[in-house]
Amino acid sequence: MNVLRNMKFVYQATNSMLRLNANSQIVKTCSVILMRNCSTSKNNPIEETALQKETSPQNCEDMFISDIENPYKPKERVCILCKYKIPVDYKNVRLLSQFISPYTGQIYDKHITGLCDAQQKRIVATIHEARNLGYMAIYLKEAKYLKDPKLFDPFSPSRPNPH
């Protein structure tokens, strides 16, 4: 019974505040919430439509806007070969040598090169083809390609190691 009296007191107090300060959006919202929670309020359809108008998203400045893009969404990764539409050919040894370690001659994995699955498979197959046909050295990178600009840094992979 005390709860009902307290709610009635709060309801009357917020109504008087609403009459005094009609421009305040905070008071309007608080009174609307209290009026909805109060068990002594009458179910008047005219009051309900007025309450709906007061709390509609068009009238409230603090409402969530659904048209805004997610600022925390990670940027979509695009591999360098797909981005610039570079054709992969077994005769283009200068491009293929960028994906081989200069120290061991091994082909870098895709988490280091940053290529997509399809391009990584195409690069590996093309390197094997170029090596079998004699266009590329099998164990080491040729010395004339050591000063080429780097497409990626092999010591800081773009993705974590999948293994």
Describe this structure in words.
The protein is built from seven helices and no strands. α1 packs antiparallel against α2. The two termini are 66 Å apart. It has 163 residues and is an all-alpha fold. The protein has helices at 2-20, 25-37, 45-54, 80-83, 93-96, 110-113, 117-133. InterPro entries: Ribosomal_bS18, Ribosomal_bS18_sf. This is 28S ribosomal protein S18c, mitochondrial. Belongs to the bacterial ribosomal protein bS18 family. GO terms for molecular function: small ribosomal subunit rRNA binding; structural constituent of ribosome. Pfam families: Ribosomal_S18.
Describe the structure concisely for a colleague.
InterPro entries: Ribosomal_bS18 (IPR001648), Ribosomal_bS18_sf (IPR036870). By secondary structure, the protein is mainly α.
Keyphrases for this structure?
single chain; 163 residues; mainly alpha; disordered N terminus
Q: Helical residue percent?
A: 40-55%
Give the low-confidence spans: 3-10, 18-24
Record field, number of beta strands:
0
- Class from secondary-structure proportions: mainly alpha
- What is the first-to-last residue Cα distance? 66 Å
- Strand fraction equals under 5%
How many H/I helical runs? 7
Q: Biggest sheet, in brief?
A: none
Question: What is the string of SSEs from the N terminus onward?
Answer: HHHHHHH
Inertia-based shape: elongated
Q: Please tell me the overall pLDDT.
A: 75
CA-based gyration radius: 34 Å
